[in-house]
């Protein structure tokens, strides 16, 4: 991990950009640091860190206010990273299916999501190795955000993850339902009831499939970008319970 810039934000947060090999990322920590801190990994859709930055910063501010470090990395195929073979075609196929008002085929969902999961999860684990080696970051670790399939896989294979807030709203390959049944960590799932790009019934079936004994579904009215502020507050309270 190589830090490339550092700035102190107006609310006492230190923001440091870094690269992990060729992967860009950002780490936010409260200052002064409250001793060894828990860490929240901030997941996001593959739109690029530059576009997602305002929303990621809002979530990092909440984490810092609760005494947590927060970090994110650029997803494969996003930002300035090389495009993923086949994914652009899958995105075009998805757009055509949605514009036609028809169902999205499982082959399209698989081609769109599974390559991203296969590449992103090992990168998140490498980032976690580097972040936990830093002074002042001691865990435990939570994951927050989407793509939900990335969160599912990471929660299944990464024993250092203690709790996860998952954002429903992305297409889920059928194979991920079996992985969801293997999860055991506490889960808090956010669902926008009127999400224009989400299959609500599939999201409910996925929640039912999660194997965790403690799992909460918070569904709110509104579209994909209309998550109410109090939903974020509930997610923060969830992490305070499980990462303290």
Question: What does this 3D model show about the protein?
Answer:
- Helices cover 41% and strands 25% of the residues.
- The chain is of the alpha/beta class and 244 residues long.
- The chain has one domain: 3-Layer(aba) Sandwich (Rossmann fold), CATH 3.40.50.1820.
- Strand 7, helix 5 and strand 8 (187-192) form a beta-alpha-beta unit.
- The mean pLDDT is 93.
Number of helices: 7
Mean pLDDT: 93
**Tally of domains:** 1
CATH level-two architecture: 3-Layer(aba) Sandwich
Principal-axes shape call: globular
**Strand order of the biggest β-sheet:** 1-2-3-5-4-6-7-8-9
Helix and strand pattern: EEEEHEHHEHEHEHEH
Q: What would CATH call the homologous superfamily? A: Alpha/Beta hydrolase fold, catalytic domain
> What would you report as the Rg, rounded to the nearest angstrom?
17 Å
CATH topology: Rossmann fold
Instruction: Count all strands and give the number.
Output: 9
Query: In whole angstroms, how far apart are the ends?
Result: 26 Å
Structural class, by secondary structure, is alpha/beta
Uncertain regions spanning at least 5 consecutive residues: none
- What percent of residues are in strands? 25-35%
Give a short account of the largest sheet.
9 strands, mixed
């Amino acid at each position: 991990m190589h830090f490339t810039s550092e700035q102190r934000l107006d609310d006492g947060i230190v923001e440091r950009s870094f690269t992990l090999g060729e992967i860009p990322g950002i780490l936010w920590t409260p200052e002064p640091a409250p001793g060894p801190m828990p860490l929240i990994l901030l997941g996001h859709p593959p739109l690029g860190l530059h576009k997602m930055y305002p929303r990621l910063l809002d979530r990092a501010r909440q984490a810092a206010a609760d005494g947590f470090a927060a970090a994110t990395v650029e997803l494969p195929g996003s930002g300035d990273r090389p495009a993923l073979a086949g994914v652009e075609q899958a995105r075009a196929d998805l757009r055509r299916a949605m514009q036609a008002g028809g169902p999205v085929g499982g082959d399209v969902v698989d081609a769109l999501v599974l390559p991203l999961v296969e590449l992103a999860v090992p990168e998140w684990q490498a980032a976690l190795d580097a972040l936990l080696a830093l002074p002042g970051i001691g865990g435990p670790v939570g994951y927050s955000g989407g793509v939900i399939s990335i969160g599912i896989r990471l929660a299944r294979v990464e024993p250092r993850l203690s709790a996860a807030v998952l954002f429903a709203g992305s297409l889920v390959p059928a194979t991920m339902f079996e992985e969801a049944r293997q999860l055991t960590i506490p889960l808090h799932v956010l669902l926008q009831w009127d999400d224009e790009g989400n299959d609500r019934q599939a999201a409910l079936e996925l929640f039912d499939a999660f194997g965790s004994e403690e799992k909460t579904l918070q569904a709110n009215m509104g579209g994909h970008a209309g998550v109410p502020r109090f939903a974020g507050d509930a997610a923060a309270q969830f992490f305070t319970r499980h990462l303290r």
